[in-house]
Amino acid sequence: MTETFSGGCQCGRVRYEAVVENFDAYWCHCRMCQKATGGMAAAFVEMPAGNIRWLSAPDWYESSPVARRPFCSTCGTPLGFAWKDGTGGADLTVGSFDDPSRFRPVAHAGAEGINEAWLDTRGLPRQETASTQSVVERWAKAGLEVPE
């Protein structure tokens, strides 16, 4: 079963459509992915490069001698990963999909960079953005409600 999903950057300048063949995703914990995303891991969906159609072109950063990463130079959103030689699959960041809710992590890559303290956070307190008073006040001051 294949479905076409859409996605893009935070500001909307870069958009894509991707033909998704399954909902498997993975975490990459390697130091390059940590630095490229600013997070403890990058959440990716891998697919054949031909399954991605850029509706508006991303910028590309050559992150190493063997890889490059699409991103938006306007808002800074990291959008994925690809091998420079064009072989193998390509990855899109899970969070850049318009609806990332159907994807599920099935593996860890770059395991040498795993920080175990960040893997299981179920016991940590949770607070929704719209219930954080300082955030609500800032959005209200801008004349807006807190976005989803």
Notes on the protein architecture:
The protein is mainly β and 148 residues long. It has a single domain (3-123), classed as Beta Complex (Metal Binding Protein, Guanine Nucleotide Exchange Factor, Chain A), CATH 2.170.150. The protein contains 2 helices and 10 strands; from the N terminus they run E-E-E-H-E-E-E-E-E-E-E-H. It has helices at 31-37, 133-141; strands at 3-8, 15-20, 24-28, 42-48, 52-56, 59-61, 67-71, 80-83, 89-93, 104-109. Strands 6-7-8-9-4-3-10 form a 7-stranded mixed β-sheet. The longest helix is centred in the C-terminal third of the chain and has 9 residues, at 133-141. It is globular. The mean pLDDT is 96.
For the largest sheet, list the strands in their spatial order: 6-7-8-9-4-3-10
CA(first)-CA(last) distance:
29 Å
Main sheet specs:
7 strands, mixed
Mean of pLDDT? 96
Strand elements, count: 10
- CATH top level is Mainly Beta
Query: Which stretches of 5+ consecutive residues score pLDDT under 50?
Result: none
- Output the structural class: mainly beta
Question: Which CATH architecture is right?
Answer: Beta Complex
CATH topology: Metal Binding Protein, Guanine Nucleotide Exchange Factor, Chain A
**Overall geometry:** globular
Number of domains: 1
Task: Please indicate the percent range of residues in DSSP E strands (runs of 2 or more).
Answer: 35-45%
Round the Cα radius of gyration to an integer and report it: 17 Å
Q: What share of residues is helical?
A: 10-25%
Q: What are the secondary-structure elements, in order, as H or E?
A: EEEHEEEEEEEH
Total helical segments: 2
